[in-house]
Amino acid sequence: MHFTLSSASIKTTILSVFLICFGFTSSQAQDSENTIDSLIVNAPKAIPLTAIIQNIQKTNEDLKLIERKLEANKAVHRVDSLYPTYAEYIDKQQEQTQKVLTSNPNRQKIENLYTKWNGNRIYLTGIEDDVNNYVSKNTRLLETIELHHKTWDLTLENAKNEEAPKEILTRITDLIKDIETVNEAIIEENNTALKLESKINFKVELINEIMEEILTLKTSETYDLFHLRNEPLWKTSFSKTKKSSNTSVLETASDSFKELVSFIKVNKSSFYLYFALILFLFGIVYFLKRGFEKYEFVTNDPNLLISKDVILKHPVATFIFLSLLLGNIFFTGTPKLFESFLILGLIIASSYVVRPQIKTQFKNIYYVITFFYVIDSLKTFLWFHPGVYRIYLLLEATLIGVALYLLLKKLYKMSDSKVNPLSKFLIQLSPVIYILVFIAVMSNILGYTNLTDITLKICTHIGVITVIFYSLLLILEGISTSLIHRHFSSKAVIDHSRKLALEIKLMKILRVVVLIFWFLFFLNMIEVYRPLKDYLTDVLSEPYSLGTITITIGSILSFIIILASSYLLTTLISFMIDDGDGEGILKSLRLPKGIPAAVSLVIRYFIVAFGFVFALSSLGMDLSKFNLLAGAMGIGIGFGLQTLISNFVSGLILVFERPILQGDTVEVDNLLGRVHKIGVRSSKIRTFDGAEVIVPNYNLMSNNLINWTLSDNIKRIDIFIGAAYDADPNLVLEILAKAGASHPNVLKTPPARGLFLEFGDNSLNFVLQCWVHYEVSLVTKSEVSVAVYNAFKEANIEIPFPQRDIHIKSMPNNNTLEDTKS
């Protein structure tokens, strides 16, 4: 179940990134590096007499700290003491491997040998890295000790020249001796570690040679699928004369058990860390289960209901499955017996996850899968005489065919309408299994046992990996559904359509990812993955020259993958931290409004920036060559990109100063609407008539901006009204105050009040002032105005309208005009 996907390590210097970002030239970069070097490398100087005692105390504290560091890290000594035993174990395994390789083993034993030695290599390589890190730490301590030694040598010489007291000279001399003692201890530790590293490296090289030999044998003609490796079954001898000589070199159950015990003893510290991870995993499963219990989950999608039931109804099986899967990933290079136990546990745990989705007639499929997995795995741990081994294979193939027929015979008689998708899949797959069983039987009888081994392996393991990956898919879907459900349900307002769309989309992505990994494991099972990986590695690493640039297809793919991963990671962070409403994972910290958005923006910018730098590094480009480009960009910014940069900087100011926040109602340039999004260059404002207006960030910073909801969303509405001159002003004020206070949307504090403004030309002018929430201000103003009108009508108070008296004067020649018209 183990396979390694290698990735090239990407190294970059943070200082060069900032130099490129701010457009330094190469000479400026060199000056900066020289300045930094001068700060790091402190030239030793003599300590003045007045500061000697104080510095002696500080140096003694440094020496004690260094000694504690040497005492604290005893892992190298433990490895050095255990190494002879492990080296003896390696030598013994080498001797047994050579005997196995000369005893004509089957393909499965060759694969198991390769897996075992790969585990040994991983284990020793990890120890080698630890020892190397230990030496590197000691080397840095030696540099500190050397600096102290030179400093106090100069100080002693200076103190003698200045005729310091004898007591001071004695203290300095004793301190120098202590420094030399610690220096010798570090050198001794380093020598021990270097010797151990050399021994380990020798064993690693030996293991590489053994693995290469195993791989060469495996790819030889002897193990070709269509190689006639044995005589026909009817000509096979069942003599047991060679059994005693072979059983001592082949892996037996007892040897496998001893290897398992030895593995547990060697990795005891790793098991402690594994148990800590299991406890953390238990907390996660409990957290996911509480999400469904705390918030009601309502949906009509059957797949989402299944994902909910996996977490809510089977949390123990989910926890055990994830724990065993974590163990399979956490422990690399495990013995075959340990790996088989883990896989068997995964099958049992997955039965509680998958069986509720299977109809009654298929409930026994897990017993069938488990039985044949155990039967096929016994070939790894037990010795069989060649003739008996072939009879064993023949019986195994026959049992597979019979079990499959008994399992599916009821389905063959059922109509298509009564058969669920899983049953249809099994019916469609059954002819393939029958063909494989037939090939296994015939190839075994004829002597093509390599082909027999691989076909039986497919028949017995395809169900195992399918069940395990299907269980993994259901659990991952349950985890994703629980997280999304908890994220949306904890909000004051739930966007159900977006929640459902996100749940379904993520479920589709998980299915594609799990299917890809299933396919990779299937290729590994049929022993095609390794040669295919080697072929693709050769193709992707083939260099191509474009002018002075040399690139590979692999570097281009790495560039694309890194950029895509950066984008997906920023999207995830934006969803989890901010999500546009400030109710993300930082909600429990009760941060001020807008702070989660700022945190999200900073993290996303850093991810994008470093992702771009890493992507360029994956192409093999020298980032120092971008200094000229950075200078040209500076000139371009000065001439043609002023608006772009000003908008970008304004966007940063908007995020950190927070004059407007996402969701605020703002008014700028006679534009009234709600802030939908604050972007890098511009912001989106959605007006109340449904239009989305793209406003450059610089305009928001430079123009008069009215934010109606920055500190709070309370707004005052003014309703102007006039009354006839014969109305009682006191009664009018009473009616206005009562109409405002009686409306449910009007706030009690400050209270609604009516004011007498002036004696108008045609009326007594009043105003009613009410404080309401901005979202309901327009509706409230309308309803309160109607209430005032009704109250005036009920109290017989007239609302006058403007009146004008027009006086028409007689014109002097009016009669003359009339005579002319007639």
Number of helical regions: 26
- Give the % helix: 55-70%
The chain-level mean pLDDT equals 79
Q: pLDDT under 50 segments (min length 5)?
A: 1-41, 241-251, 816-822
Lateral arrangement of strands in the main beta sheet? 6-5-4-3-7
N→C terminal distance: 116 Å
> What is the subunit organization of this protein?
single chain
Q: Which structural class fits the helix and strand makeup?
A: alpha+beta
Number of strands: 10
Largest sheet: 5 strands, antiparallel
| Strand percent estimate | 5-15%
Q: How would you sum up the global shape? A: extended
Task: Give the C-alpha Rg.
Answer: 41 Å
Question: What would you say this structure looks like, in words?
Answer:
- This protein is α+β, with helices and mostly antiparallel strands and 822 residues long.
- Among the domains are: 23-223, no CATH class; 714-794, Alpha-Beta Plaits (2-Layer Sandwich).
- Helices cover 67% and strands 7% of the residues.
- It has 26 helices and 10 strands.
- It has helices at residues 14-21, 26-40, 52-72, 75-101, 107-161, 166-218, 243-247, 253-266, 268-294, 302-313, 315-330, 336-354, 365-381, 386-412, 421-446, 449-489, 496-525, 529-540, 553-578, 595-618, 626-639, 642-657, 697-702, 729-741, 777-794, 814-821, and strands at residues 543-546, 549-552, 665-668, 671-678, 682-687, 692-696, 705-707, 714-723, 753-759, 764-773.
- The strands form 3 sheets. A 5-stranded antiparallel sheet has the order 6-5-4-3-7. A 3-stranded antiparallel sheet has the order 8-10-9, covered by helices on one side. It has a two-stranded antiparallel ribbon with strand order 1-2.
- α15 runs antiparallel to α16.
- The longest helix has 55 residues, at 107-161.
- The radius of gyration is 41 Å and the shape is extended.
- The protein starts with 13 loop residues before the first helix and ends with a helix.
- Pfam families: MS_channel_1st, MS_channel_2nd, MS_channel_3rd.
- It is a multi-pass membrane protein.
- Residues 720-799 form the Mechanosensitive ion channel MscS C-terminal domain.
